[in-house]
Amino acid sequence: MLRGKKLLKNTEWSILIVCVILTIIGLIALFSATQSADYEEFRKQVQWVLISIPFLILVSVIDYNIIIRFSTLAYIILIGLLIGVLFTEPINGASSWFKFGESITFQPSEIGKVITILFLAFLINKMQIRGRKEINKIWKLITVLLAAMIPIFLIIKEPDYGTAIAYIIAIIFMLFVSGIDKKYIFFVLIVTAVAIPIVYNNLPEHALKRIQVFLNPGLDERGAGYNIIQSKLAIGAGEAFGMGLFKGNQTQLGFLHPKTTDFIFSVIGEELGFIATGSITILYIILVTKAVYVAKTAKDNIGSYIAIGIAGIFFFHMTENIGMTIGLLPITGVPLPFVSYGGSSMITNFICIGLLLNISSRRQKAIFAQ
What we know:
This protein is an all-alpha fold. The chain is built from 15 helices and two strands. The protein is 68% helix and 2% strand.
């Protein structure tokens, strides 16, 4: 009983509160955005939220050191799923989903974020059995990077560049906290600088088009530049307090697409205004900050690595989705956590919250500055 009370006292409940608020905002936005479609996606999203809650509870109460024991098996299964999904029928140009029946889809790369973070946390910790600096031994670092690159490579093959970048950001966060030597960081920066022009010149046509339109939306106003132009018009029209639910011109007249996933932030901006979008941004900043704090105060290295990896996922999704809707970043199709429509992403996000609650409840002292 005393241990249970201590776990509850240590738990970072503000993370759960932010999660609940963002989910409610998302449901309100979806309710308005789907009125012309008989609220179909809104009803499905409510179902996904209800399905996700048991996952959150289960993951938050089982000691994460027990969960981590199954990470290797889960990683192997994930690789099999990521290979298998490449042979499915493409949806919107990407082979990213397994389809069951007429309306149920499963995106393995979404749940794969959590699995990869758990497996890498386990692997990095195993590599550091003789000390944190052990990660800087070249063969150990290469082993970790290879384990990270396999799912990333398969996701790029789908192709789903946005999700692949989310994996990369999470891994960068984890390696930075693991005590990696600065020389490797400088090396990666140099390689990245050299690789950018090479990768740019070898991008597939649709990806290249997105970057060109990002730099100049007017380049193809009725084609590739259409969505971002409509998104900026919607957010601008909302001004401070919005046009009101069910009253957004771009949202309700069908100019904003896809309004329930990629551009749900634009729906909120148009109908609820800058006050709402600004508040959402603050909530995400709180969520990421709290996740970093949980990583900093975790009782062990594994907990720290898991929490900081999750912080990286949330940070990227927040930055990319909001950035692309206001024209500051290229459009990648990255959903806004807890707000955008999607079952796989909702379950994954709730699992992430459950892990953060789990780690925070068992924390003792800061460790990743050692």
